[in-house]
Write a structure and sequence with these properties.
The protein is α/β, with parallel strands linked by helices. Helices cover 37% and strands 24% of the residues. The radius of gyration is 22 Å and the shape is globular.
Length: 251
Amino acid sequence: MKFKTLVVSALAALTLGAGAQAQTVLKVGSTPTGSPFTFLDTKTNSIEGVMVDIIKAVGKEAGFGVQIEPMAFSALIGSLTSKRIDLISAAMFITPARQQVVSFSDPVYRYGEGFMVPKGDNKEYKSFADMKGMTVGVQVGTAFVEPIQKSGVFKEVKLYDNPPDMMRDANAGRIQGGFMDYPIAAYIISQGNYPNLKMAQAYQPTVMGSLGIAARKDDTALLERVNKALAKLKADGTIDAILKKWGLGPQ
């Protein structure tokens, strides 16, 4: 009787083990500085936000687990191509330059850059032409760097590794303005963390782009699974519900 019990217990353990191994867990690169798309929740000490919720929903639909790996934005693509991570889910635009290195999913969300200035600056900024001679900031690795540098209108373009450093400098008056993903800048300013800053509401973005989930070029099967899951989640309203949860309008 005891032998039979041991055999049954062993078989049950093997079955449970096989079930636990059935779901692959993928490492997903994301950033702690991109609210509301990705940010570090200090209460849970984990990365949260729109793109985290979306990749978790995609994983659930596609049948893989998700392990979020926090890192600097500029390190994301290098970490993906070197196989330290399996996917990128962050506030990353789909651009021709990036598409030469990695593959992107179907678009998830579309927007452009925003321009933040001190609250005391009441000038109406509509384009770069209105900013001649200014010292401004922009985040390294974003699609906004090249057009801002090539415009030739600025006295100085300071490059920042992360948004908080740039926003602190703008808030303190060390730079006259800063360029960031509009939804991220607007969300952070709305939280009251930088009381001396506001968004230049008249500004028209020069770079419009769509966010996508990135995979390695040779991971075509994985990308197909991601796209299939995204299509399902868009159709059933899951994506719009996630966007609404974080204060963003539907796409």
